[in-house]
Amino acid sequence: MAKIGGGRCFEFSMSRYILFLATFCFFSLFSTCFSELCSLNMLNQLSQALRKEFEVQHVLMNAD
Fold it and tell me: From what superkingdom does this record's organism come (predicted)?
């Protein structure tokens, strides 16, 4: 509801637009960081599982 000549209505819609844009940027940044953390967590779990498997294989080889 922006008036061509400016005025209060234009400022209100502009601030709403900026607020929407800021919220969108925040959530996209948050989702990116969250997905990065999830992938790091998955890699960490995978490396721990591989390390445990390696330790088990090492113990089994030394038992022979």
Answer: Eukaryota
Is residue 10 scored above 70 in pLDDT? no
Q: What is the pLDDT of residues 49-64, one digit of tens each?
A: 988 988 888 887 777 6
Cα–Cα distance for residue pair 53/1, rounded to 1 Å: 64
Alpha helices in the chain (DSSP H): 8-63
pTM above 0.85, yes or no: no
The dihedral over CA atoms of 11, 13, 17, 23, expressed in degrees to the nearest 10, equals 100
